[in-house]
Amino acid sequence: MSDGPLTLTLNGKLRQFEKVPDSERLLDTLRWRAGLKGTKEGCRTGGCGACTVLVNGEPTLSCLLLSHEIDAEKVTTIEGLASEKIGRVVIKAFTEAGAVQCGYCTPGFVVALAAQLRGAGPPPSVESLLDGLEGNLCRCTGYRAIQKAVEAVHEALK
Amino acid sequence: MTRSDAEPKARGAVEYGTDLAAPHMLWAALVRSPIPHGRIVRMDLGPAREMPGVVAVVGPDDLRDLLPKGALEAERPVFPLDEIRYRGEPIAAVAAETLEQARAAAAAVAPELESLRVDARIEDIFPEWPSEAAAKDPRVVGHVHARYGDLDAKFRNAELVHSETYRTSGVHQVAIEPHACLAEVRDGTFHVRSSTQTPFGVRDDLASILGVPPSRLVVEGTWVGGGFGGKGAAFLEPYAVLLAVASGRPVKLSLTFEEEFELGRTTLPSIIRLDTAVSRGRIVGRRVRLLLDTGASLPGRDFAVGYSIGFLLGPYRTEAYEIEGFALQTNQPPFGPHRAPFAPQSVFALESHIDGLARRLGVDPIEFRKLHAWREGDRTAYDQPVGPFGLEAGLEAAARTAGVWRTGLPPGHGIGVACGFWSTATGAGGEARLRLRPNGLTILQGEREIGNGSVIRGLAAVAERVLGLPDDAIRVEYGDTATAPFDSGVFGSRTLGALGQAVEKAARSLAHTLASRVGAPAIRLEMKNDQVVVVAGRRRQKLADLLTPAERTAGGVVALGKHYAPERTVDASRVLAGTVYPYQDFTAAVHLAEVEVDRETGHVRVVRYAAFQDVGVAVDPPGLTGQVEGGVVMGLGTALSEEMLWTPEGRLANPGLLDYRLPRIRDVPPIHVKTIEGFAGAGPFGAKGVGEPPIIPVPAAVANAVADATGTRVFELPLTPERVARALKLL
Amino acid sequence: MSDRPPQRKAINRLLVEPSVSFQLVRPSTPEGAIRLLSQAGAGEIAVLAGGTDLSWDLDQARIAPIQVLSLGKLPWKYLRWENGSLVVGSTLPLRALELDPHVKRRLPGLWEAIRDVGSPALRSRATLGGNLGRCSPVSDLIPMLLAFDARVRIVGPNGAREHPVDMVLQESRRTSLGPAELIESVILPASGPSAYLWQRVQPVNDISQVGVAVAFVPERPHWHIALGGLQPRARRLSEAEAVLRSARPTRFEMELAAQEAARRAEFVSDKRATESYRRRLVAVLVRRAIQTTVERMPKPSPARKGTR
Which CATH number characterizes residue B412's domain? Predict the structure, then answer.
């Protein structure tokens, strides 16, 4: 067993964690070392998307990723996104569209959607935005309200 | 109306069961049986206790020490005292400083087990409909039987008898949040925090499983990351409590998805045999037989059968019938409720059967159903009077939509209809305490919001409707089982209907109190400058000015509301064995599905969908729409892709999301949600619950649409491409 | 149940998997990586490209390596065009390939196959080299690589070599790579139109029951057909290819090729599909994939239209 220090730029701040086992997944580092529990633990097999975070801006399944694989890289979680403008727009749209029921999947959806909208220029098409959410499972809403939230975000950013 | 929990949830700022933590907390892991049936010959927990970081290990032999007064009920053992009954059954549990250490120690347990013969699958035990043989099989452990009318004569004289056999598979709730709880002992009291739909239910289950009085148990719910029936009884809590007792430290236990699947508590498979006698175009007699796999369940087997059977008769007038249901014991895990337990599967069989019969008779399927549909005042099969019921109105609305869809329907497409019914406002009862403060209203009650909005928004909407206060002046508060008034739980589409009535009564009592203080026949409330204002006719007074000095000190006027479900009865003379269940109210759902079937591969795509939901009164319209859409899509999973794949050896072949397939955002068709109002239910203002009804007709509607598109009926759920291809005789 | 004689057998295996601990090594040069591989004994080291599949093996304790060798720091995350061929560095995330407009236009079949691997968040880590190295019989990418006659550049202690992808594949989790060898890149030669079709229980995020890759290439034989969902590995079906003689085969020829493919391929029954259903699917999907490929051919000029 090996457990070296881990450095991450986490939500814009440089964070260092001591003695992180080499086998540890980013999901656990975020939730239990950094205390950022907004990233949710679901299936742990890459199937539900509840643990989606951004690594260097790319949506990534934190349950499948060894923390040390991204030493010194930029990680943005739902907590970080919620304080960005685009995060707030997406959260507002989900809230107003009735797209939040139990809410367990919601941070993952917000991250996966916001990831597609952080670039400059006009937003991708609604269809393309929905394609970007196909790794995220929601068991409550039947996705219709989430689709409405996506449309609302698209409209707001057009 | 925006829900107050939506924004914090979307930011990831609320605490679910999986997020629970406490100072000095230990992590737990379960030691699970690798065999589906057998006995523990020897199990030495010593090596596990010596592993690094391990603080406590508990197994069957520790129960008497840890719980000297424990009842150790054979019906609900924490660990198997006699037989291991399913693969994955917990046989010991470990608590350690880290989760990795707990898992490593659990893996170090090396029991000697003795295997017994495995009966894993209903289709291996009864490849054909077993008829009389079932009653004599030692594995058949429950029996429900009811009969009415001169059935033999009806069948003898029938012009046509329609006979079919259907099969359904087990489906999992798959809440995205795995089960999780945290237990600790404080001053001799067991405190459990848990992601549960039923805090009081968990408390009472724990009391009976552990043999401790309920007064020594406090259960506090967390935010729940989806329940769908799967979080409705004590499950992990007993293990966590035992480990907390053994270690003297707080213990957290949560499941992996693999454990979620292998520990079951899901809907289990069934075989359903239906025979229907028809004379002069009408159904005159029905024989309904059900063989339900109840897995390793011990308590509740008869309930499962008796409850399912009710749906197989359906909301149709029945002159003469015989129903018979059997519970089959297998080495699958115990069953558990899943959104509208037993209904989507039973209704798939019934509504496919009715649909096929209508087509065979050359009658429009909707008209055929209307001919037999219950109306208010009809009698159920067990002679209960049918209350206000929106089925006929739903069918008429569906017929209009089907007519529009039928015009210009592309080749390869088909339209299917199906009906479902449900009884809402069930459960023992609920209580709520309302406190009207000078700046708003708080509702204290014992449930947690599980996602459907029935607590955080539904209860507030009831108070809003009675008192006139806006939603943002109403706060729902959650107590634990020691501080909150009792409620049966968030299940059975009962929260709005039953707990909502407790809120309604308390709100009316507050209104009455204030009306008498201002000397008016009635009042309503408004908010002005963050102050509650009592309005009586043209008079307006601040609430603060109407309070007594004592009330001012206490923080406002208080009222307690109680609702206990009225007793309903069935005609016992019709029930020959087991128990059948009466209904609290009569809630209908009529669904239409349009599908496209790939005639070469058997792949089914749902093109569009319409749900006509009997709601009595729409108390929270956005929440209602969300429930119907969510129910329909969950039902599409049951219809098309979800199925627990058990091997003949009793192993689950798909214990996770890789081969257990849930609908995803791109699979969802447009869903038209229409409410049918005006047929009052048992809830406040005549409201009916809508959590479960919308899932019920979905598999049947899809199957009927496939039959419409192809002329071929599929007799087994789910309608995977391969099953449809076989029905189409493509292979 | 007590009336039945018990089968007495000691069992001491449990359903709890021990959590695996290992050392993660992240060399920044191919030489460093090869050296680490050379030094490790059999089963002691596991290679991690994107990790989206390997992490399952680790979670299930199917492997218990002492070291996990990450390729993440190697300079192999590239995509370039050389003489009409596409060269893909083995650790380039699939997402980068998917988002490249030239890939979508020039190799539509590859784009379709990539697009059908998991979800966007999975594809942001998963790699072509990793997919190939895992050699899963149900991979959606491997049939397409076979249809393109892709070549694989392999580096190891004895230098670099290049092989057709067909020679690299063996069975699930096994390739013909030596113990200290790594896939550096995959070379996809210039190709005409292509298509990838599959059947799944669920369209998105599911494992394909069968996958059918078709490419029309400049050299003979022009038609390449490869199937996934076979055991022990995906393969080309030259018998079916031989049926197709022109750039615009008739419906009858397409049907014949599909029937030939269905007849020749060795299928198995498993939890995802039975053998007979897979055979049926191939008979349909091969025809459709050829048809789709034909539809993607450059439109014939109006002058030639009458000659068809």
Answer: 3.30.365.10
At CA B249, angle to CA B246 and CA B251, rounded to 5?
A: 85
> pTM for this structure?
0.96
A147 and A98 in contact (C-beta within 8 Å)? no
Tell me how many residue pairs between chain A and chain B have CB atoms under 8 A apart: 172
Whole-Å CA distances, B16 to A40, A79, A122, A143, B337: 9, 16, 36, 21, 21
Catalytic annotation on B322? no
**ipTM of the prediction:** 0.98
Q: Which residue of B has its CA nearest to C198?
A: B601
Q: Do B226 and A107 touch (CB under 8 A)?
A: no
**CA torsion sign, B457 to B463 to B466 to B468?**
negative
Please tell me whether residues B109 and B48 are part of one structural domain. Answer: yes
Candidates B9, B636, B642: best to mutate against A (most CBs of A within 10 A) is B9
* Residue of B89, B324, B692, B716 marked catalytic: B692
B259, B260, B600, best to mutate vs chain C, most C CBs in 10 Å: B600
Q: Based on the fold, state whether residues B305 and B228 are members of the same structural domain.
A: no
In degrees to the nearest 10, what's the CA dihedral of C196, C202, C204, C206? Answer: -80
- 8 A C-beta contact, residue B306 and residue B581: yes
Contacts of B14 in chain A (CB under 8 A): 103
Domain containing B211 equals: 15-116+179-254
Q: Are residues B196 and B242 in the same domain?
A: yes
Domains parsed from chain A with CATH numbers? 3-77 (3.10.20.30), 81-157 (1.10.150.120)
Question: Strands across the sheet with B539-542, in order?
Answer: B524-528, B531-536, B539-542
Nearest to A142 among B15, B453, B632 (CB): B632
Q: Are both B544 and B582 inside the same structural domain?
A: no
Q: Which of A2, A23, A59 sits opposite C121 (nearest CB)?
A: A59
Residue B34 to residue C272, Cβ atoms within 8 A: no
**Position B146 in a domain:** no
Q: Which domain CATH number covers B249? A: 3.90.1170.50
In this complex, is the C-beta atom of C280 within 8 Å of any C-beta atom belonging to chain B?
A: yes
Same domain, B341 and B442: no
The three-point CA angle B219-B222-B225 to 5° equals 130
Domain spans in chain C, listed from the N-terminal domain onward: 23-70, 79-188, 194-295
Using alpha carbons, select from A15, A14, A17, A8 the residue that is nearest to residue A62. A8
CATH superfamily ID and name for C194-295: CO dehydrogenase flavoprotein, C-terminal domain (3.30.390.50)
Contact criterion met (CB < 8 Å) for A58 and C124: yes
Distance from CA of A121 to the nearest CA of B (A): 25
Q: What is the pLDDT of residues B566-612, one digit of tens each?
A: 899 999 999 999 998 899 999 999 999 999 999 999 999 999 999 99
Average pLDDT rounded to a whole number, residues C179-205: 95
Please state the rounded mean pLDDT for residues B620-644: 97
Per residue in B205-251, pLDDT (tens digit) is: 999 888 889 999 999 999 999 999 999 989 999 999 999 999 999 99
